[in-house]
Amino acid sequence: MRFNPFNTKIGLALGGGAAKGIAHIGVLRAFEEEGIKIDCISGTSVGALIASYYAFGKSIDEIEKVGNNLSIKKVIHFTMKKRGFFTTHSIKQMILEDLGDLRIEDAKIPLAICTTDINTGEQVVFEKGSLVDAVCASCAVPGLYIPIQINNRLLVDGGITENVPVSVLEEMGAGILIGIDLNGVKKYPYPEDVIGVMGNAFDIAIDLRTRDQIKKCDISLSLDLSDYSRFDNSDRVKELYNEGYYPMKRKIKTLLWYKKTNYVQYALRLFKEFVPLKVPKYIQELYHKGISSIKIK
Hints:
Structural class: alpha/beta
Radius of gyration: 19 Å
Helix content: 40-55%
Number of strands: 10
Number of helices: 11
């Protein structure tokens, strides 16, 4: 619950989605073209990677070049360890070459990187410390990548706990929360092999939790990118970029309206918080089912 009607600071959460993360770049381009300032940004997995480049001042054109390298072949480094088959060495080298050995707290835009402690099951959010270590941990898909050890914690992909890390934005001072979900799908690709089965199972488990978590958003963008690969979209970069760009351009109208009517939104929140009005559960369920089926095009 955000009780400050004067707070129109925008917080943006970029979700995980492996090679589908190119769509995030289109989202950021839409914001820049409309002159909308992002006051704080968070990211999980590939969202953490894109958020880091943006938070440290890289232009959209420069980030697009990173998007061209978002394929499994370019970001894996094979090894044979007990805890995984690949290291995040290639991701680490890319960040060091493009950005340098930076600290998260030095970002031009306040930045949060979300990871998961594979030992305790806790979400671990980095707002300070080594950028490269935090991003590598957030990208370390368990079972494939070797976990990253930071401060005596064994860390993996933040998507396990919060794939679209909206919850941290409020603590960072945002008054308007925007979440970008790359997995707003209604069905999953038919699995041709064991990797496909495992991938679908992993996605389904995360997506079910994400649907509840993004209810915290004031504005959310859930993209159905089921026609794209989670491993390599190098032959469809522009197409995938547009999947984020055009829907966000349409959503920005909602954002501008939301900022102008923030006092009304504030009053509605207060009403919901304090007025002892209970709606029967079956009516709530009918209402939510109705909302979820509405499409405005």
